[in-house]
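Bumping with the actual sequence this time:
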Amino acid sequence: MKIAIQGEPGAFSHEAALKFEPGAEIVPCALSTEVFAALDAGKVDAAAIPIENSLAGSVLEHFDLLLKHDVRVVRETMLRIRHNLIALPGTTIDQIERAYSHPVALAQCRRFFAEHPQIEAVPFYDTAGSVKQLAGLNNHHAAGIASRAAAEFYHAEILAAGIEDNPENYTRFFLVRRAAEATVEPGANKMSIAFTLEHRPGSLMAALAALSAQGTNLTKIESRPVHGKPWEYIFYVDCQIGAAAEEDRVLQVLGAHCGMVKELGRYSEARGAEKETA
């Protein structure tokens, strides 16, 4: 299976993709839009995308892309995010003057930078990319902040492991396939949906009350602006489901209150045991 990711080999998305499909061929893309374009064009079989981090929150762009493209979420997993200071072999931490990484990763390592004021945090486009560039720089005064897998992939060394401020740092990933090829796994117990509401008082409350009346448990709700329609919103919800009949009832209930309802996927909820150390 070919799986597209946003980022360089060794990125956390790379690890998530291999959790979904060990042995998969990973296709790196510079931008998330390129990931979905590759999936649309049939250049890959699936895409592994981060959708939510336990500290930084939702990856909002990916909600928009899930709605825009004819795709379905087929699986979910959790990845423990552990950041490491990585440099060229033979480098010592005392030599490091600059540490490159994705802005979110840098923000999650503030305590480390406070404890090492001689090291400047420098934003970079990708965690694994920050390590990949070290070989080209050939600079023992530079480091990257990324996963252990990135250090191994680019033959670099970890100078300080687990430098994130909060160990309860997890990212939830979706495996996405083209809608025509998506299948629902046996035992699927979770559903993601997007919907819009009539622009009138109480419309959201009415929709949520209808779901509550049939015993549907919402596990997440997110709103995004409707492009070109100021102050109107698209709502994204995740909910726990049982039998297929219950899944269909959720869509029917929302359809009675919403202008648009789109099923984004049905899949098995990631378990706590899947929160493996990265």
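The tokens above came from a reply further down the thread. The longest helix spans residues 244-255.
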